[in-house]
Every structure is written in C-alpha cells, then in structure tokens.
Design a protein that fits this description.
It contains five helices and seven strands. The protein is elongated and about 100 Å long. The protein has a domain of 43 residues. The N and C termini lie far apart (82 Å). The strands form two sheets. Strands 2-1-4-3 form a four-stranded mixed beta sheet, covered by helices on one side. Strands 5-6-7 form a three-stranded antiparallel beta sheet, with no helix packed on it. With 152 residues, the chain is of the alpha+beta class.
Length: 152
C-alpha cells in the first residue's frame, strides 16, 4: 500500500498516511499538496493535527553489485521502497577500455616493470620461450596412437 508523507502546518514531518485518506483530506480542504524537489507526492495539513506522535521507523538497505534496494518501514507497514541502479557496468567497461588503450600505446614495455610484463596474457606466438616441438615429451600420458605403435 502506498503511503503519502504528511507535513504539519509548521513544517514538522508527521507519520505518513494512506493514499485514499490523503485524497479525501485534499477534497475536504484539510490539506494542500506540498511541493518538494524530490517530486514525491506529499501533503501539508491546513490545521493543527490532534496529535503529533511519531513511531520509530527503520531503514533497510540491500546492497548489490548492479542494483541496490532501500526500504523505509515502521512496525506495521512499509512506508517507502526504492530501487537504485548502480553504475558498476559502466565503470567496468571504462576500466576495460582504459586498460586496452594503455596496452596498445607505444613504449608500453619500457614503462612497466619486468615482473608485470612476463606474466601478462600474451598470444602464444609472441611469447619469449623455446617453441615446443613435441607435446608428448612433457605429458605423462602418452597419446593412444603412439602407445599402439610401441606395442606392435
């Protein structure tokens, strides 16, 4: 159920009310629409309320990598929920682009330490090592075709 924020005539926030009750107060003249920068529909009471007691409320946050959720809840009802879209995907794409641009720049090998250069992912043909001529010399398991030839 959607709850509408209520402001007292002197500007003090009160407990939110149901949307149907807020519409009824507006129609009967008990309240006016309260403009705000957040573009949230709120009402301001015209007369002093009979009571200004407020309940304890809690804010819950569900953090995530791409999205986060926020909820404001009293003991009985949920007053407000929000869904935040975080910029992780965009930031990650920019970091990847920056890394690619740096690796392609001229003089990259001179600017980096040797320990950083030797462990990077370089294509097999560009690696600085003796080319492997026979794959089965290193492997403990002999391929079936060679094993069959030896047994003959």
């Amino acid at each position: 159920m959607l709850r509408v924020p209520v402001i007292s005539p002197n500007g003090k926030p009160l407990m939110p009310t149901k949307a149907s009750r807020a519409r009824r107060w507006l129609k009967q003249g008990f309240a006016v629409v309260y403009p705000n920068d957040l573009n949230i529909f709120a009402i301001k009471l015209v007369n002093q309320p009979s009571g200004s007691q407020t309940q304890d409320i809690a804010v819950g946050v569900d953090p995530g990598k791409l999205f986060s959720g926020i909820a404001v809840q009293s003991q009985t009802t949920t007053l407000w929920t929000g869904h935040l879209v975080l910029p992780y995907k965009r930031v990650r794409d920019r970091i990847d682009t920056r890394r690619i641009m740096r690796s392609r720049s001229v003089g990259f090998a001179e600017r980096t330490r040797r320990s950083r250069r030797i462990n990077r992912k370089v294509s097999y043909s560009k690696r600085a090592h003796r080319q492997k001529r026979f794959e089965n010399r290193i492997a403990k398991k002999v391929p079936p075709s060679i094993r069959a030839n030896r047994q003959l």
